[in-house]
Design a protein that fits this description.
Elements (H helix, E strand, L loop, with lengths): L13 H7 L2 H4 L3 H17 L5 H20 L11 H13 L12 H37 L4 E6 L2 E7 H26 L18 H7 L9 H6 L2 H28 L6 E3 L17 H24 L13 H24 L1 E3 L5 H4 L6 H10 L4 H18 L8 H7 L13 H6 L9 H14 L2
Antiparallel strand pairs: 1-2, 3-4
Length: about 450
Amino acid sequence: MALWNSRFKKALNEIVLKFSASIDIDWKMFNEDIDGSKAHILMLVKQKIVSAKDGKAIIKALDEIRKEISSGILKFDWHKEDIHSLIEERLVEKIGERGKRLHTARSRNDQIALDERLYMRKEILQLVKLTRVLQKTLLKKAEQYKETIISGYTHLQRAQPVLFAHHLIAYVSMLDRDVDRMNDCLKRVNISPLGAAALAGTTLPIDRRYSAKLLNMNGIIENSLDAVSDRDVMIELISLCSIIMMHLSRISEELVLWSSQEFSFAKFDDSFATGSSLMPQKKNPDVAELIRGKVGRVYGSLVGLLTIMKGLPLAYNRDMQEDKVHLFQAVDTAKDCLNLTSELLKHTSFDKNKFEKALDGDFSLSTELVDYLVRKNVPFRQAHNLVGAVVANCVEKNIKLNELTLKDYQKISQKFDKDLFKLLTSRSSINNKISQGSTSSKEVEKQLKYWVNKTK
């Protein structure tokens, strides 16, 4: 019989039971459910609401149930409705009437809210760990290719030469903010709703702070209605997963582009690429494409949970049972994609010589000429216009900047001199950068040391 069935004369219609069962989803929280129950019964014993003898028997049985679930002896039967019911019913089977004392001063409402927070706490730590691993992978690649020059892009048009290491470190920096956001979210997650009961609290002399302390939580949610009726921290965590996935998608998009024949910059190991069932020459960047594609799942989870919560009156509503589908999908997808991105990068090589010579004299060095004129006291806007005229001249003649003669340069401005040609290599463009955080070898070396130390 269902745990809530005391006032009903009929059992729940089996079609309704199957429709409303959630054990196929929430079984993932069996450890959290048992941890929360152990803290709850220890608190009840401390407060002399349950005897020490009964409390000891309940804790022993809960530990046995954990082992039964972990080993597969205790199966997840949808007739049990949810993981909370399965565990409690098994507890009563094992120790009889004493097991029925466990749920004293507790509702499934605060029980579920606690389980979810314990689950999120654990998963945030895993997400942080995997993000740090990806940062370290990026830094190793940056060290390996720290003198490799690539073209930097804006609007997917060549902009200015940059060191490939500088490009990779940009992602390290983005991911670091993801870590900061997750750690900040953890502060709000790690607060206990246990003891709020269904919505109004309880008349029994419980000690909510004691059970929170047993669970290593940072306090309690003071308002009992709020404790059981909101899922804002869950929405926050899924939104953080969405941001992480957005960053991973951008990395993946660049790997897809770089592996194309047009770029021929990235080369995937055969074990991290696939072929075509029709075209024998193909080597496809499927891993990167799948990571990019799975962003849709996480974004969908965020919108899905926001939609569930948007019109619910206080307090708990059964709609909220659907929250776990979105939470688990978002977290699992983000973890998988963080891991796969790290592994894909480890199994990808890059052509160190692809861009450097091709960028010598390229229009992406135009800004070097603007700065050259500025250093000769030409106002920036005027310098910009003069170099624009140089570029137009080169376009008309179908030549590079370093192929235009000094005479042609001086027709545009007498400020140009033969020393300008020293600026028209990709290496000089890199080395001449002096601003903090720029792409020069010196600044990139500083960034590498900073991030390697921070991500230890």
